[in-house]
Amino acid sequence: MKRTNRLSPVLAKPTTNRLIRRVLIVSPSDAQRRILSVPLRRARYEVLEAGSVADALQLCQRIEPDIVLSDWIIPGAAGMESGLDLCRAFRTGERSRYGYFVLLTSAQDHEDIARGLEAGADDFLAMPVTKQDLLARLAAGERILRVEEDLRSSNAQLRAALDRLRDTQAAIDRDLQEARKLQQGLVKQRSGRFGPIQLSLLLRPAGHIGGDLVGFFPIGDDRVGIYALDVSGHGVTAALLTAQLSVHLSGSADQNVALRAAQTGTDAVSPAALAHFFNNMMLEEMATDTYYTMIYADLNHVTGRLRMVQAGHPHPVLQRADGSVQPLGNGGMPIGVFERPVFDEIDVILEPGDRLLICSDGITEATNPAGRLLGDDGVEAILRTNAFLGGHVFLESMAWSVSEYCRGERQDDMSAVLIEYLAPAETVPLPRR
């Protein structure tokens, strides 16, 4: 409840719903206290009186006054005590709300005002005090108290809102933690072996959930489908789209769009045809501004032939058995942007000892503190440096190198597929005795 605004405490009578303020008058003079208390009680203030600093401090501790009117000099048991001492004690004491302190002085000079303000006084009132001056100063003090009360109420509401926000954020974090587990479960197999071909997958979201997806599925007896997707963004929208795409690329033949043709007795769809299918699905069935990049590969693990489509994804990097490194593809267009996209088709033969790395832009576009991208040159350097490593050991080493390059400030999801054509084991002859 708030006191109604008044143009003047003298011209307008207090309304009945005005908040009753407690005013403490501190003066060793009974007459002085009576002169001040009479007009205050008529103005409907609750008046308390104290004749010493000690009595005033006890009242301040027991009953918190809203306003204190104190003489400058107050004789006490220890001699001449000052209203400044009371003011300092009033300011350092524990209170649930702000109190307005007015010093009564017989003569005001600049030095006294400076000392009073330093002690914590809010205002000064010259004696002898008139009724008009007294009520005017208290009206000014009441405006300050109302502002303080409004601020305190607003702060309380803000704290309550922040508490609710923290509770909501904690619930969201718990949900995202569970969503992360579910999204990690979309990659059912992190590695696979098909004849001499070994596949290894890396999926590392930047936050709780991400927009990257990698995986593979068998196509008949001699082929395997391999995919790497990167949905724009890495929040809830991106995670929901990756979940839907994982259904279309799962190992179940009745759901996997790349295998539907095989159910009719024909070959599985080509990589380029699959990219066009997804592009049409994004434009016709999904009302969203989200798009994604993709590499889909059809690998014959008997012959080593690898047919790929590149749709805006970073260039796959081929490392031959002799250590030479070659980026593949011209880029192609992302999926879900253009009605007549142009995708890049790549056809390459893997030989024993070769390996192919497919990674998302969370790796190629990793940025160091100076703002420099890792780029294709950085990926090539990682391949050369870790030429003696393979499988998940290589992928973890690459992930560590990228994090070190970013100084731990990685902003995007990180995913990769490593395809290795394992060389046959060499026979080591035993020495003759």
UniProtKB/TrEMBL annotation:
<dbReference type="Pfam" id="PF07228">
    <property type="entry name" value="SpoIIE"/>
</dbReference>
<feature type="coiled-coil region">
    <location>
        <begin position="144"/>
        <end position="182"/>
    </location>
</feature>
<dbReference type="InterPro" id="IPR011006">
    <property type="entry name" value="CheY-like_superfamily"/>
</dbReference>
<dbReference type="InterPro" id="IPR052016">
    <property type="entry name" value="Bact_Sigma-Reg"/>
</dbReference>
<feature type="domain" description="Response regulatory">
    <location>
        <begin position="22"/>
        <end position="142"/>
    </location>
</feature>
<dbReference type="Pfam" id="PF00072">
    <property type="entry name" value="Response_reg"/>
</dbReference>
<keyword id="KW-0378">Hydrolase</keyword>
<feature type="modified residue" description="4-aspartylphosphate">
    <location>
        <position position="71"/>
    </location>
</feature>
<protein>
    <submittedName>
        <fullName>Fused response regulator/phosphatase</fullName>
    </submittedName>
</protein>
<keyword id="KW-0175">Coiled coil</keyword>
<dbReference type="InterPro" id="IPR036457">
    <property type="entry name" value="PPM-type-like_dom_sf"/>
</dbReference>
<dbReference type="InterPro" id="IPR001932">
    <property type="entry name" value="PPM-type_phosphatase-like_dom"/>
</dbReference>
<keyword id="KW-0597">Phosphoprotein</keyword>
<dbReference type="InterPro" id="IPR001789">
    <property type="entry name" value="Sig_transdc_resp-reg_receiver"/>
</dbReference>
